[in-house]
Amino acid sequence: MFDLFIYNDIKPGKLRKQFDKTVEQLSRGDFVSAEVKKMRDTGLYRARLDYENRLLFRFGRYNDRTCLLILEIIMNHAYDKSRFLRGSGVDESKLLPVRSQQEVPEGDLVPLTFLNPRNSRFHLLDKVLSFDDRQEEVLSLPLPHIVIGSAGSGKTALTLEKMKSLTGRVLYITLSPFLAENSARLFYSFNYENDKLEIDFLSYREFLETLKIPDGKEVDFRTFESWFARHRQATRLRDAHKTFEEYRGVITGQDITKEYLSFDEYLALGVKQSIFPVRERETVYRLFEKYLLFLKENDFYDVNILTHQWLSYCKPVYDYIVVDEVQDFTNIQLHIILKSLNNPTNFILCGDSNQVVYPNFFSWSHLKSMFYRSGLIENEVKILRANYRNSQTITTLANRLLKIKNARFGSIDKESNYLLTTDTAVKGDAVFIEQVGNAVADLGQKTRQSVKYAVLVLRNEDKAKAREFFKTPLLFSVQELKGLEYENVILYNFISENAAEYNAVCEGVTRDNLLVDELTYARGKDKTDKSHEIYKFYINALYVALTRAVKNVFIVEKSGGHKLLRLLEIAEDAPKRIMKEEISSADDWKMEARRLEMQGKTEQVDAIRKGMLATVKPDWEPMTIEQYRITKEEALNPENFNKKAKDRLFDFALLHNQEVVIRQLAELKYKRAERFETERSSLYRKYYHHYKKDNLQMILPLLNRYGVDYRDQHNFTPLHAAAFAGAVKIAKTLLSHGASPSSLDTFRKTPLQITLEQAFLSSDYARNRLGEIYPLLLTDALKIQTDGFLIKIDPHKVEYLLINLFLVVQPMILQKKSFYEEMAVKIDDLIENLQHFSDAVLPPHRKKRTYMLALLAKHEIESNNPYNKKIFKRISRGNYQLNPDLAILIDGNWVSVVDIFNYRDLSVVELREHALQREVKEMEAFRKKMEKERKNREKWGW
Ligand SMILES: Nc1ncnc2c1ncn2[C@@H]1O[C@H](COP(=O)(O)OP(=O)(O)OP(=O)(O)O)[C@@H](O)[C@H]1O
Hints:
The protein is α/β, with parallel strands linked by helices. A hairpin with a 5-residue loop joins strand 3 and strand 4. Helix 13 runs antiparallel to helix 17 (531-546), helix 21 (625-635) packs across helix 22 (643-655) and helix 30 packs across helix 33 (798-814).
């Protein structure tokens, strides 16, 4: 007998009877009656519902019990439409029958962190999630509501699932761009689709940019700190962090009616409203005035002031808004976010005030009172306490830290007054290491090659010192590690480097204060005591740091004996732990690089590539853009016949469908260029034979030698080559080893664009390769702008496909146009080729001429459609070009479409010029022919 859980999105409808019957057979373990078969290489299994319909499922493991997870109903044998098998052709006759559980290999059982026995339905993000009763309760709450939860309690997971039940235009917003991107990725895991939803996953900065892209750069703490240092002597203000916090959370950000407080208003603030005592405020404010000048003169902006200025651009456009990590926002930021709601109560806020590490003045009670006043929220505040990330030891430590905080500063507010709970059986360990002898060097040595250890420092600036001992690429500041987790975390000199601050944190706290089982609700006694605001960065950063450790924490300090260590009950004199050196395999490191790359942690990814995956530099010269220009000049020089340059240019031009260049070569009597289409197969044979055959074994030696993102002679990475040839197996392996789907080739094409180009060119590729390879190559959301504001387009949207498609096929099409034709793409230029595209990429209804025409019209500059993204310029009826004013964010820079095509030597102007020259040449040839004919007639007397 199996415990059986069903994905909450499954609706059997008319198949209810068959569904129930098969589910019952499966739960009895009667695999023969259910006709269970294994889908190769996927860990997935299918059972039979009836003659034409199937049930897809997999096995899970929780607390030593095997369970069955029902994932999807597959109608009419259409495996290629399955969310989990998208695009892959499955031949039922080749599937392996499975008669009993004994035939299921251990590796096919997904390990599960938790299964709620009271709920047979599960949810799905990047993994199977069975919510506990409290989580389920929160999920079913009507809007608006506030979810408060400790680290690792599933706030993000829960709100993402909640979003799936909404309809209309939804904004998911958080301060960190990595979290926004990561949440989008979680949301769309396993090709999740929902036609009723139009979601924007935005970081706060992107949100502001969707209103209007500001000039200049946002001032960050580091810039502020070096500016502050220049004024330290004159002002006698010592603490840059505290001052920055006062500017970002008190003088600006708090009062939503103005950009910043006036001098008098600032002075008049009550003791609870500012971090500085009244006597220091004049100095603080005078420096603030200088700060404003500094911003102006150096093209920086302050995000709160900018937000206030941006209010006038903000219109109500969203039906629902989810604010994740709400504790990171200031009042004015929340105000503008919620101002974009159609109905002011359709929001969910979630966060954890113990994780505030950005400067602001956050408290739940303050936040709630903001909403109570406006009557928006009454009682809908729910607290999640169960922790799904950390071991017992880490949870205990985190709780001790919360108790210290509570004893020292009183309760921040009623809502944050709780401890974490956990059900985990994993014990974990907390190890103290004092920096004497070679203890730290030894720890550094033993862990540097392991993907299971991350080293954490308080601030970015502290990394240099940590690097002396820790050569691992996995070195992070606390802010960087938000949202991430590692089995082991090493905290480096958190306390010793900030001894005074952590001393102040422990002031007056005794062990007896920590003997409580729950936090008591009590305000700090002294209202003028601003210590919490001042020290919250230190204590919260330590809390975030600790809770990143799934199992063990290593606390490395220059010196021991700190009171905080005693209060945390970290055994300083525990017998020395004998550690074995841990070495992760190259594959593990590749996987880790990929994981970090997905989170945008480029610094660590580069360090992994350089340090752990060191490879040999190829001894050939890839065709970079500079090399291309030189080769082109050499090859097209009529004075000097350079066969080598011509060969190289021709191969490269054919690879990129640069027909104009190929024609120029043909004019110079370069034979291969005259019938270039017949040369394609030899191009494959010569360079990409193994890719065409999807033969992984043959390219592995190159990958091992040169690394996963090396450049071949055409400046293709292996992933570009796999996209070019449609090599699905190779692409999967490359991606799992950290290859980047965002890498650009010489003409700034992504692997995905190469795939679309190939599919457009070859019906065989479009039918047989595109379906499986396309979803693998999706990049982060596309960021575009036309009228000075950002539009972010998620990869699952049809506009994402359309822009990528046009970027490659527009020049292909225009190159073929005669001088008398419109230099634009007609629907007839497209529609026939699109018919061959796999349905998994472009479903049948989107291949229809009427749908495509409507889509082009919807997004053309002049269209009145409210969702118009101004992607196209209408040249004449039914004739479109990509909007030349459209700019795309490439490697952090805005690049206009015109520049992209210019860069490829394929601008519309240039193509028109070529068409004209072609026309003139053809006319000349025609004239010569006619002249010859006239002479012949004369000669023969006709
Ligand atoms: N019911 C559950 N069963 C198993 N895993 C869960 C459950 N709920 C959450 N998780 C997992 O716990 C981890 C933490 O969840 P999530 O990131 O949503 O928490 P969070 O509250 O947003 O954390 P933090 O505030 O620390 O960023 C994730 O890996 C998530 O998938």
